[in-house]
Amino acid sequence: xxxxxxxxxxxxxxxxxxxxxxxxxxxxxxxxxxxxxxxxxxxxxxxxxxxxxxxxxxxxxxxxxxxxxxxxxxxxxxxxxxxxxxxxxxxxxxxxxxxxxxxxxxxxxxxxxxxxxxxxxxxxxxxxxxxxxxxxxxxxxxxxxxxxxxxxxxxxxxxxxxxxxxxxxxxxxxx
Length: 175
Known about the structure:
- By secondary structure, the protein is mainly β.
- The protein has one domain: Lipopolysaccharide (LPS) transport protein A like domain (lipopolysaccharide transport protein A fold, Sandwich), CATH 2.60.450.
- Helices cover 13% and strands 51% of the residues.
- The chain has helices at 7-21, 24-30, and strands at residues 40-43, 46-50, 55-66, 69-80, 86-100, 109-119, 124-135, 138-148, 153-156, 167-169.
- Strands 1, 2, 3, 4, 5, 6, 7, 8, 9 and 10 form a ten-stranded antiparallel sheet that branches.
- Strand 2 and strand 3 form a beta hairpin.
- It starts with 6 loop residues before the first helix and ends in a 6-residue tail after the last strand.
């Protein structure tokens, strides 16, 4: 590392790199068409990068935003691949929250859980502990929910390796 670069500048540099790579391609599938063209914005009280482990950690009221997608948590940990693009993103909070407008849908997809684990390759968001996902007017509650962002598909309960019974509220159509 160049000793001439201040730690705050280095953290800012990594935040910028993360902003331009964080959920770039996968967002195109589930997000509004113009979300992919929007810049990524990341805000946290602190940022730390461990290049040897290819992990960056953002702590303290963390906000990640791109277009209509917004992820919030007390801590966000990003595991980077060899190309420095995120492979796995883990958000922890009390609770961590996620929301995003989906093309063709009136309401945003909203989620909250004590832990969220995003797998970039599968384009899946796994909600763990006190998990709630709202898709349109329908709400899913379980200890573990897997949301396939490509297919807008929800899995909960034993099929998602959960241990609790699934609680679902399906609202009648207002048409």
